[in-house]
């Protein structure tokens, strides 16, 4: 075996530096290795704590997901309830609109037929009245036109008698048409003046 005495000082220093560097590199690699890896196969407490912490976070996430699912179900039920209420309100509003339209139609009828309308008619013209119409002959001459259910009810006479077809219509008597079955009056003078309330139609010769 060769003695270190045979080595000069410069070579000895170089050998020490190389040996020291080699040992230092291994120490640094061992210190920087992550626990639980192939460089550090030993399972350390820090690695175990880290794994346990990851499992704990997973449980918290599952709990949050379950809570959100429950909340979503509650919101879905609430939405269904509100949707049903909206549908009921929409139906109620539509019903009100329909009733309002009917009232407007009735008001229009009342405005149209709710008062006597003066007419000037000529010979052979016919005034055909609808149900609940009222007729007053103010001037001239006219004959009654009866319907299938009877003639014109003479309210003014007080007897309740009907004026039937071809009978003379008295002046200034209130005549009531109870049905829409073709009742009215026919003008037999050159001119006649009539008041009418309710639905009517003027038929020419």
TrEMBL record:
Keywords: Coiled coil, Signal. Residues 65-113 form a coiled coil. Residues 1-30 form the signal peptide. This is Uncharacterized protein. The keyword Coiled coil applies.
